[in-house]
Amino acid sequence: MRGAAIVVARVRRVRPVSTDTHIPKCGDERLRMTRALRHAFPPSLRRGLYEAIFRRRDIRSFLPDPVPDEALARVLVAAHHAASVGFTQPWDFVIVRDLERRREVHRVFTEERRRNADQFAGKRRDQFLSFKLEGILDAPLNLLVTCEPERFGPAVLGKTSIRDVEIYSTCLAVGNLWLAARAEGLGVGWVSILRNDALAAIFSLPPKVIPIAYLCIGQVVEFPDRPLLESAAWAARLPPKSLLHFDSWEGTGSADDRRLADLVQSAEIWKSVLAGDAD
Ligand SMILES: Cc1cc2nc3c(=O)[nH]c(=O)nc-3n(C[C@H](O)[C@H](O)[C@H](O)COP(=O)(O)O)c2cc1C
């Protein structure tokens, strides 16, 4: 089953769609306008993007097969094309193949995992300890994505009182990288059970450079349909409707707004994207 189709199936399972209340009629003006968006990608490209989004997973188990350089190069360029505040492009990418450095990172992970486990008690702690939460040594490749906030500073177009905008930008680069890797058939796992001071020392980062994402990258046996933490009943995806607010945190919105809230949980919105789906 394809990624977007899986999402649709799950929407159906979680909250059956009532055609009376949730689906706009064919003549509905707003739906018609959506279908006619002038600069929308052609169907196959649009679908490809959503497939990458829904079929991306955090991966912690890898095959030993190498990551082809060409695919890796495309993934890095995709990351580099992320939005960035003032077009500062504050990121760098440290490609880590050296096993000794990776062992050092793994030692830090082992210490931090213990500290993380101590945040939980009883069965929850046991479950935490049963999880594999990294692939630092199994993945053929590790990648440290960093941020240099003052690369073009201190004056930055788009930066006044919100201090972390370069960090946000770097996270967008990681998002691009993660999706592009999925499209290439490469798994990516983000390991944050680490310490930034240790990463800075292991990789000799200059003082102004901040570690943002320590990633394990490689080929995988499979991309699971669902997040591993969801399959293990550690956490569940929140209903998207519950995350919408209208005009203020407390705002319940108009009838149109409430219909939008129903739409985000409706399988109907995916019909046009999945048109021709053979699954
Ligand atoms: C900032 C960040 C840090 C994360 N750190 C870890 C980690 O240390 N270990 C781990 O196993 N997964 C880590 N994850 C992955 C999340 O657990 C995962 O994204 C989430 O469970 C949803 O699963 P999915 O990415 O497969 O959709 C991290 C993800 C993000 C965005």
Describe the structure.
The protein is 42% helix and 10% strand. Helix 1 packs across helix 4, helix 4 (43-55) packs across helix 8 and helix 5 (69-80) runs antiparallel to helix 8 (165-184). It folds into two domains: 1-56 and 224-279, no CATH class; 58-222, NADH Oxidase (3-Layer(aba) Sandwich), CATH 3.40.109.10. The longest helix has 20 residues, at 165-184. The termini are close together. The protein has 279 residues and is an alpha+beta fold. It has helices at 3-14, 19-22, 29-35, 43-55, 69-80, 99-117, 122-130, 165-184, 196-202, 228-231, 255-263, and strands spanning 91-96, 141-147, 187-191, 210-218. The structure holds flavin mononucleotide (FMN). Flavin mononucleotide binds next to strand 3. The site of flavin mononucleotide has 11 residues, from strand 3.
